Amino acid sequence: MVAASIGLAVLPDLAHLVPLLADGGGWHTLAGYITATPGHEPALPPLVAMLSHHLHCIGHSAVIAGWSRVRLWRWRRQWLIPLAGWWSHIVIDVFTHSADFYPVPVLYPFTQRGFDGPAWNTPGFQLANYAALVLTAIALWCTRRRGR
């Protein structure tokens, strides 16, 4: 269950990278895409750009995630917990992506507009993010240590 939750949590950011690898540019194109700043993304062939964009939209859509949850509820109820990983990714990304840099289209396919939040790749936000991760790790370490 934990592995499935983690897998579904990272899937929205990995799925839309597949067309970039299939393009022929390989790791060079992928690295340029991942490390790009707003307005400096590498040029992509139109088909690759369109596929990548729509896979990004699908992976970050609450509409698609909600539809998937309802479908899986009827088929395999044990997938409801792992789907929380996907939902956590959507919720986090909605508030950590600016309109200039991979906005999160929560209501895709009805609209491709996203919420304009602070960009995750700005220095101040990254500092706060890593500080929160370190504090969480320390809290978990202290909690486990007390349990022993």
UniProtKB/TrEMBL annotation:
Residue intervals passing through the bilayer: 79-99, 119-142
Keywords, ordered alphabetically: Membrane, Transmembrane, Transmembrane helix
Keyword Membrane: yes
Domain of life, per lineage: Bacteria
Entry protein name: Metal-dependent hydrolase
